[in-house]
Amino acid sequence: MMSERGGRQAYERRLAAVNASLEAAVPSGDMPPAVLHEAMRHAVFGGGGGKRLRPVVLLTVAADLGVDEDAVLPAATALELIHNYSLVHDDLPCMDDAPERRGVPSVHRAYGCGNAVLAGDALLTLAFEVLGRAAETGDGIWGALIAELARAAGSTGMAGGQHADLDPDGGAALGLPGDDHAALRVHRLKTAKLFGFAFSAPCLLVPDRQAWAAEFREAGEDFGLAFQIADDVRDAGEDASSLNYARDVGELAARRTAEAAVARCLAVVDRRLGSASETSALVRQAVRDMGL
Asked: What CATH number is attached to the domain comprising 237?
């Protein structure tokens, strides 16, 4: 089994690979239209750029499946671009109206609302350009992967979850599929779907592992659900008008729900990849980092 130190080193190496790929993909601030490109770079790299957990998970699953990192890096890059576009739009005054992101002014505060909308649009578009260029290899597998990411990010995925989160009365959340708590229904779309892609995408790139994609997608969504519940636990004392599972059911019950989701995720990972796999070690370390 990988040691904690070895896991941290592997994470840092993959983080560097993702950052290098993002640096190559996002246009320079010197390239016209300069202000738009500066806003895009602020979104992706401002405040250090964040942990890049989603693409690192994707690269780790790929490594355990024997997929060459260079071959899967476009999928990891596209995933992180979409995540960052969503943060730009999530911070807008018409949504969360957040003044900061990662300790620096949010994109709309630094560049204005119009440029923030366009920067988010451009990052979303760039994500699919990155995947389209990878698909130019002629490998038809990329078509399935592009569709997988579009579903995760679209109206029945992340965007649909954000739509429900905007409803102050919670009615839109209760209208989402499922019979569990309204906040969990939002989390399963808004947060968990992109993690589902992080787990399933590498399976789609390995012909004899494509049958595992649905199982890994569910495992990733369970991981993402736990990730968001942990965030709810930390934020339970803040804005009472926002959906928060931990505030509604109590910290102990929320932690139990998160722990059950982690257990489901690890059951798949350990059965398919082994309990000594890098993915298993990463999930376990991430859970500790979440405080679960």
From this structure: 1.10.600.10
d(CA 109, CA 115): 10
Q: Hey, how many other C-beta atoms are within 10 angstroms of the C-beta on 242? A: 13
DSSP code per residue over 105-142: E-HHHHH-HHHHHHHHHHHHHHHHHHHHHHHTT--THH
Q: Of 27, 123, 47, whose CA–CA distance to 78 is shortest?
A: 123
Residues 165, 55, 229, 97, CA torsion sign:
negative
Question: Which pLDDT belongs to residue 170?
Answer: 77
Give the number of domains in the chain: 1
Angle at 85 between CA 79 and CA 86, to 5 degrees: 90
Q: What is the Cα–Cα distance from 85 to 126, expressed in whole angstroms?
A: 10
- Name the pTM for this structure: 0.96
Give me the residue label for tokens 């690269």. 59
What does each C-alpha distance from 236 to 228, 245, 249 come to in angstroms?
A: 12, 8, 10
Residues spanned by the domain of 28: 4-290
Report, as an integer, the average pLDDT of 134-163: 92
CA–CA separation, 245 and 110 (whole Å):
32
